[in-house]
Amino acid sequence: MTSPLLVHPQKPDAEGATHRITPQSANWTYVGFETYRLPAGAKLARRQQGREACLVLLSGHARITAGGQDFGRLGGRASPFEGSPWSVYVPAGAEWRVESDGCELAVCTSPAEGRLPARVIPPEDVGEETRGKGTNIRHVRNVLPVSAEAESLLVVEVITPGGHWSSYPPHKHDVNDPPRETALEETYYHRLQRPGGFAVQRVYTDDRSLDETLAVGDGDVVLVPRGYHPVGAPHGFDLYYLNVMAGPVRDWKFTMAPEHAWLGW
Question: What confidence category does residue 2 fall into, taking pLDDT thresholds of 50, 70 and 90?
């Protein structure tokens, strides 16, 4: 039986959606996540009261307008593995429109009041860093980090080379006790650079009341409502994932699993 934490992509619906994850479908409070495959000429429009959005161009090009601003034709990646993305921040209550030139789009949402203006986030504004050492090395692209303006939304991309671990050592952020730890729901949207492969993600708590080990395919989403959530990429299959996080406090403070803390972050 498929785990409720593992969401497989669907065939594109009438709007091109391959994922529609809502707080209701995920049985939580904050994070929403959608993906679209939009052929050239396709159009998509939304206005969400009470929710801000980050539109991430996974690949291809699109003309995007948001909050009354026309940001022009954005994008250019052939795949999520090729450099940092173009993204657009959309405040709660503002309309956004996408006119596709052939693109893959991720729509990341969370609760907000609409206090900030719409803005484009170009690749040069995406902070890039490498974390870890040895087979724990992964490459991070901070699309909408804590240091960037948003009300509750956090968005990051990670490239994990084949044979490496990521989101490792195991860490959690499910207790709202800042500044020690902040409670953040999280989605992982996984992509594999080569077809036919898989990755592994474990989601577990200290008391093992939640303990799932998931075989992840290209395009799958893993829901992390609580607990530790390390990811492994088998040799030969580089892994991309897009993380969306949100909670009652917009900060990323985590606790490492005690038995792994000696490894360091």
Answer: confident
Q: What is the DSSP string of the chain?
A: ---TTEEPPPPP-TT-EEEEE-HHHHTSSS-EEEEEEE-TT-EEEEE-TTEEEEEEEEEEEEEEEETTEEEEEEE--SSTTSSPPPEEEE-TT-EEEEEEEEEEEEEEEEE----S--EEE-GGGSEEEEE-SGGG-EEEEEEE-TTS--SS-EEEEEEE-TT-EES-S-EE--S-BTTTB---EEEEEEEESSTT--EEEEEE-TTSSSEEEEEE-TT-EEEESSSB--EE--TT--EEEEEEEE-SSS----EE-GGGGGG--
Whether omega for the bond prior to residue 179 falls within 30 degrees of 0, making it cis, is yes
Whether residue 254 contacts residue 192, with contact meaning beta carbons closer than 8 Å, is answered with no
Class of domain 6-263: mainly beta
Sequence ranges of the domains in the chain:
6-263
**Residue recorded with tokens 């956004």:** 96
Confidence of residue 7 (pLDDT cuts 50, 70, 90): very high
Task: Enter the pTM of the model.
Answer: 0.97
